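Structure first, sequence second, as always.
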């Protein structure tokens, strides 16, 4: 018995932490590995926990006169400031539209940024998407109450490598601010949304020691050029598993 315990302890020490990450093709009970063919359940996701569980507020539980088969169903229901639905106990509830995480339409996720909904085009343990946001310059915005912008970002827009090769657009100036396309990452473990830059990429790659060590050894220019390449490598090595009914 003692010899068995010693063997298990010794064997456990030799197992690298990275081997504890599910291998590609390895299924979990009640879950499936995400592929481009996967479709999330349609409905309103109040928070990211519902996204991880693939359990939105379904169309059937939404209180609305809009036809469920209307192709513009979600666009129409999100025109209102509040969303009404029945919870699991059948009790009528209401929630402000600007507090929900997003929704899924035809199996595709849309996340809310600045009260606009943006399609998540690359899904994995690290997700990637692009949003058209408005930023403000306090020097050109005068208010008797002072300047405040809850969405202000200290980072400027950088022409980082894009997997879609279409997002090198200049910003559009408006009276209240400027509109620009920004790239973001989502950590599917925590739900945190991060700007797509070298620092965020390094932070998320830390969960895979091998890829992280490769990435940090690159020059600054190479890091910028290969950000999405390493995000894709991470997702390939560490596939995302989604619960299914």
């Amino acid at each position: 018995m003692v010899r068995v315990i010693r063997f298990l302890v010794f064997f456990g020490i030799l197992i690298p932490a990275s081997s504890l990450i599910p291998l590609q093709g390895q299924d979990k009970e009640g879950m499936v590995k995400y592929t481009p063919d996967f479709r999330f359940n349609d409905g309103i996701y109040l928070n990211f926990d519902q996204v991880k569980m693939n359990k939105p507020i379904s169309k059937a539980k939404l209180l609305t006169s809009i036809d469920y088969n209307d192709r513009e169903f979600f666009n129409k229901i999100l025109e209102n400031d509040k969303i009404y639905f029945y919870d699991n106990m059948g009790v009528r509830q209401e929630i402000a539209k600007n507090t929900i995480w997003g929704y899924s339409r035809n199996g595709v996720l849309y996340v809310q940024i600045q009260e606009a909904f943006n399609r998540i085009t690359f899904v994995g343990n690290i997700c990637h998407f692009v949003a058209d946001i408005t930023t403000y310059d306090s020097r050109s915005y005068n208010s008797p109450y002072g300047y405040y912008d809850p969405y202000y970002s200290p980072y400027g827009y950088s022409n980082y490598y894009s997997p879609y090769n279409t997002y090198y657009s200049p910003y559009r100036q408006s009276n209240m601010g400027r509109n620009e396309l920004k790239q973001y990452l989502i950590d599917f473990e925590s739900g945190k949304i991060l700007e797509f830059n070298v620092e965020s990429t390094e932070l998320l790659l830390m969960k895979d020691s091998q890829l992280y060590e490769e990435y940090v050894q690159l020059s600054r220019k190479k890091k910028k050029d290969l950000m999405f390449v390493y995000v894709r490598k991470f997702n390939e090595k560490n596939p995302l598993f989604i619960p299914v009914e």
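Margin note: The longest strand covers residues 126-135.
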